[in-house]
Specification:
six-stranded mixed β-sheet, four-stranded antiparallel β-sheet, 14 strands, binds adenosine-5'-triphosphate
C-alpha cells in the first residue's frame, strides 16, 4: 500500500535563503510521525508546503500515492501553532462553525469525547485555559474525521500536566488509525509519541527512522552527571588518562557538576572508583534524542 504521504526532492527558496534543501521522506499510514529540528531548520516551511499553505520552489507531495487533489483538503486536519478564535463564541459554537465548512461532516460527539472538552462546551473561547484551548484546536483539526492530522507544536507553553493530557489524546487519535504528523521542540514528547521521526537542520534531513532504532545505531550508552565535590581533580584525571572510555565531545562542565557520556558504563565506573572518586551523588540516564541531535549538529534542539 502506498504511504499516506510522500515528499520528493522538496525545495523552498526565499531569495538567497534555502529554507528547504531538496528533502525526501515517506510517512507510512497509521503512525505518529515527528518532524524535529532547531529554530530555523525548515520544519514549518516543510509542513506548510505539505498542507498547501505555501507553494514549493520545486519538488512534489504525493498523498496516498497520487499528486494532491481537492480530496486532500477534505481528508486532512490541521492544528496550526496559532489560530484566531472569536472571543464571543462558545467552545461548542466554535466547533459547529468549523464543522460546517466540510461536506457531510460526521457527528461531533466522538471528537468532543476524544479531546475531553465535554465540560467546556458552554464556555466562551476567551474564558478557557491554555491547555483547554489546545484541546479545542485539536478538536477543530478533527471535526472532519481526517485520515491525516498535522499538529504544529501542540504542547508549547503548556504546563507538565496539560502536556501529558495532550499526549494521551494524541495517542488516542493514533489508536483510531489516523496518521499524525507532529512538529515539536520537545524531545521527550517525540520519544514518547513518535513511531518515526525526521530530524532536520538547515533545510536538510540529518536522520530519519524510528527513535529507538536511531538511538541504538547512533547514540547508545548512558549520560552520567557527577557533582564536582565527588573529587573533581580525580574525575578529570580519569578522563584525561582514559579517553576511550568517554564519548568525545560529550563532556559538559558547569560550576558544580560534570556530565559525561559513555558506552562502557562499567569500565567508566571502575576507573573512577579506582581513582578514588566519590560516586554517591551520580545520576545516570539513557542517552536520548536530544543527545543524538547535539552530537550530530553541535546544538541543542531547544535553543
Ligand atoms: P521554528 O522552530 O522556529 O518554527 P522552523 O524549523 O519551522 O523554525 P522555518 O520557519 O521553516 O523553520 O524557517 C526555515 C528558514 O527559512 C529560516 O532561515 C527562516 O528564517 C527562513 N524563512 C521562513 N519563512 C521565510 C520568509 N517568508 N521569508 C524569508 N525567509 C523565510
Amino acid at each position: 500500500m502506498a504511504p499516506i504521504l510522500e515528499v520528493r526532492n522538496l525545495v523552498k527558496k526565499y531569495g538567497d535563503i534555502v529554507a528547504v534543501d531538496g528533502i525526501s521522506f515517506q510517512i507510512p499510514r497509521g503512525v505518529c510521525f515527528g518532524l524535529l529540528g532547531p529554530n530555523g531548520a525548515g520544519k514549518t516551511t516543510t509542513v506548510e508546503i505539505i498542507e498547501g499553505v505555501l507553494a514549493p520552489t520545486s519538488g512534489g507531495i504525493y498523498y496516498k500515492g497520487e499528486k494532491k487533489t481537492g480530496r486532500f483538503k477534505q481528508e486532512v486536519g490541521i492544528q496550526f501553532q496559532s489560530t484566531a478564535l472569536f472571543h464571543l463564541l462558545s467552545v461548542g459554537e466554535t466547533l459547529e462553525t468549523f464543522r460546517n465548512l466540510y461536506k457531510d461532516p460526521p457527528p461531533i460527539r466522538k471528537v468532543i469525547s476524544t479531546c475531553r472538552i465535554e465540560d467546556i462546551l458552554e464556555r466562551r473561547n476567551d474564558k478557557i485555559s491554555g491547555g483547554q484551548r489546545q484541546r479545542l484546536l485539536l478538536a477543530i483539526a478533527l471535526v472532519n474525521d481526517p485520515d491525516l492530522v498535522f499538529l504544529d507544536e501542540p504542547t508549547t507553553g503548556l504546563d507538565p500536566q496539560a502536556r501529558r493530557h495532550l499526549w494521551a489524546i494524541v495517542e488516542d487519535i493514533r489508536s483510531q488509525g489516523k496518521t499524525v504528523v507532529l512538529t515539536t521542540h520537545y524531545m521527550e514528547e517525540a520519544q514518547k509519541l513518535c513511531d518515526e521521526i525526521v530530524i532536520m537542520d538547515e533545510g536538510k534531513i540529518l536522520l530519519n527512522g524510528a527513535p529507538q532504532a536511531l538511538l541504538r545505531e547512533h547514540c547508545s550508552g548512558v549520560a552520567a552527571t557527577l557533582p564536582k565535590d565527588g573529587g573533581w581533580e580525580r574525575i578529570k584525571r580519569v578522563m584525561d588518562e582514559n579517553p576511550a572510555l568517554f564519548e568525545r565531545g560529550n563532556t559538559f562542565e558547569n560550576h558544580n557538576s560534570v556530565e559525561f557520556h559513555t558506552r562502557n558504563v562499567n569500565g567508566c565506573m571502575r576507573a573512577l572508583l579506582d581513582a578514588g572518586a566519590d560516586l554517591s551523588g551520580i545520576a545516570l540516564r539513557s542517552r536520548n534524542l536530544e543527545d543524538l541531535f547535539l552530537e550530530k549538529t553541535g546544538h541543542r534542539l531547544r535553543n
